[in-house]
Amino acid sequence: MSLAAYALVDCNNFYCSCERVFRPDLVGKPIIVLSNNDGCIISRSNEAKALGVQMAAPYFKQKRFLERNNVTVFSSNYPLYGDLSERVMNVLRTFCPDMEIYSIDEAFLRLDGFSAYNLTEYAQRIRNTVFRWTGIPVSIGIAPTKTLAKIASHICKKAPESSGVFNMNDFWHSPENIDALLEKVPVQDIWGIGRRSAAKLANYGITTARQLRDRDNAWLQKKLTVTGLYTGLELRGISSIALEEAPPVRRSIRSSRSFGEPVTEKKDAQEAAVAYTVRAAEKLRREGLLASTISVFIKTNAHRPGDQHAEYCAHTLDSPTDYTPLLVHHASEMLLRIFRAGHKYQKVGVLLSGLESKRNQQGSLMDITSPETQEQAQTEARLMQVTDAINKKFGRGTVQYAGEGLRQPWKMKQNNLSPKYTTDWKELCEVE
DNA sequence: TCTGGGGTCCTAGGACCC
DNA sequence: TCTGGGGTCCTAGGACCC
Hints:
Layout: E1 6-11, H1 14-21, E2 31-34, E3 41-44, H2 46-50, H3 59-68, E4 72-74, H4 78-95, E5 99-103, E6 106-110, H5 119-134, E7 138-143, H6 146-158, E8 165-167, H7 175-183, H8 195-203, H9 209-213, H10 217-235, E9 252-263, H11 266-286, E10 289-300, E11 310-321, H12 324-338, E12 345-353, E13 356-357, H13 358-368, H14 371-394
Parallel strand pairs: 2-4, 7-8
Antiparallel strand pairs: 1-6, 1-7, 2-3, 5-6, 9-12, 10-11, 10-12, 10-13
Helix pairs in contact: 4-5, 11-12
The protein binds a DNA duplex through residues 34-40, 42, 56-61, 63, 76, 102-106, 191-197, 225-227, 248, 250-258, 261-262, 301-303, 346-347, 349, 412-413.
Protein name: UmuC domain-containing protein
Pfam family, one: DUF4113
Family: Belongs to the DNA polymerase type-Y family.
């Protein structure tokens, strides 16, 4: 039987690469992309990495250094990244229909059926095509399991001579090569092993992927739960984490942001809670879902130990809904309940959970409710449809809820935003 | 002055039931 | 009144991911 073959296609420094597609003048130069609120650094070009710029470093601490070194800085522009991601995924699908979109910049492909091809060459073709059609450079790791494919893609990024593809299957049948390779992988670089588990494993003298692989199943399960057991099996080449081709059913929708400035006024925190509820409810309807529970949380800045307050409040509705005014009403009320004057708040968030499909619900609703209730439900649904349609056509916030406020002093910072080149007619790229 | 946002899964423990 | 096993469901907290 031939070896299973999973490929992980991973976009290189994805957000930076997206910015460069529209700014070719920045190719070969150091650039970075910041998190929301211009808080910390979440993507670095190779040139920025070479300067020693650290991932997740707070921007304000690096600002001087970045200026001195002529690093170009971008606020994150998610509509742009989402659009380019979709284009990359569409190209990949033409090469392999057995595909799992794992994140905005990664996809797993199941390449078993392509044994007639030389897989390394096939991956090379995928890589070249993605770059030609979208401008995004990718790395591809191939191995008998998803966990090993992740490792293969890391290896490939670190080794320039791999020319963007690393195929572990090519020498799977020489165990000493695989041993040598896994020996060089630190345990915390393995998919599914985070900081806490790595620290725990270090206490048992386990610091490399090879050492983890060689522990027995019972030990792995005892120390790291079943997820750790699966990781161990996958490191041995036994596929235990399946390809998920259909996106999993969503369980929750969250909307939360750090404030641009610390918030001390109840009214401002309440506006933010309302605004986030409006956004979460839009997403709910876009995906044809209803929520049965809404929660609101508020917190102060964890980096300011002198002023700490964090609280959370949940409300379960009589029946699941996607009606914004009702959700806004509950969110607003809960916020007032958890807000305490005298604190400098950093963040408010809204979580919708207990989600179910609207389609399943409608039938049963019709059976048991009165004509008046049905009519009201239809009026509400139409109102939501109309506001969604207007906001889609003319831009978010064209129709706004009064509770969201107008001045919005709590709004996040985005001082280095690039234009919406691909998703907004007003900001299309101009060609001269 | 300034430190992201949005998700999932697993386990333990409590409440409740037969 | 006391005793017991076994099952389900829910929630909070921890850990992980990109």
